[in-house]
Task: inverse folding
């Protein structure tokens, strides 16, 4: 991660700070949210997080508590993401089953329509192919859920795993580091 994350106080790492435009503070997202956006989910060298604080606390107990707090925060969010990914998978499989049944009914209706239609060919083709298209569209959402909806959650989970084991350094805020 390049540069540091500027915070007015250490608690702003876990909660959204109160914006104070007159004091030059405009941030409305927690430091962890900002870290999750900035960190690369791909594992590489160890992640180093530099926190720039207006009031630096060098006390070793504070640093130990900070590391434990970050690890615990990440573990809780990772567990929540696991539950959410499993719920999406369950819903996706249920909807996939319903979609496959609906597609089968549409295909059967299209075949029956093609075999028994006595009107113009173009109208028979219009309705039978329309039924096939509607059947395939019914599969769109379950397939999207199973293959794509979980990807952002997987990315966030990987980022949190990297942050959980990151080397955290607390520095005094530089004059250009105000957020």
Result:
């Amino acid at each position: 991660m390049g540069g540091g994350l500027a915070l007015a106080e250490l608690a702003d790492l876990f909660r959204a700070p109160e914006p104070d435009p007159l004091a030059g503070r405009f941030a409305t997202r927690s430091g962890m949210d900002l870290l999750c956006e900035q960190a690369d989910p791909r594992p590489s060298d160890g992640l180093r997080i530099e926190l720039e604080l207006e009031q630096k606390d060098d006390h070793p107990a504070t640093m130990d508590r900070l590391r434990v707090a970050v690890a615990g925060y990440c573990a809780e969010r990772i567990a929540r993401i696991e539950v959410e990914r499993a719920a999406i998978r369950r819903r996706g499989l249920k909807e996939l089953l319903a979609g496959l049944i609906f597609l089968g009914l549409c295909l059967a209706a299209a075949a029956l329509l093609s075999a028994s239609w006595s009107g113009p060919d173009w109208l028979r083709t219009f309705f039978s192919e329309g039924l096939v298209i509607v059947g395939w569209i019914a599969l769109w959402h379950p397939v999207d859920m199973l293959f794509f909806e979980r990807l952002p959650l997987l990315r966030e989970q990987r980022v949190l795993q990297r942050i959980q084991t990151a080397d955290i350094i607390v520095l005094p805020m530089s004059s250009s580091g105000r957020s």
About this structure: The mean pLDDT is 87. Residues 60-116 form the longest helix (57 residues).
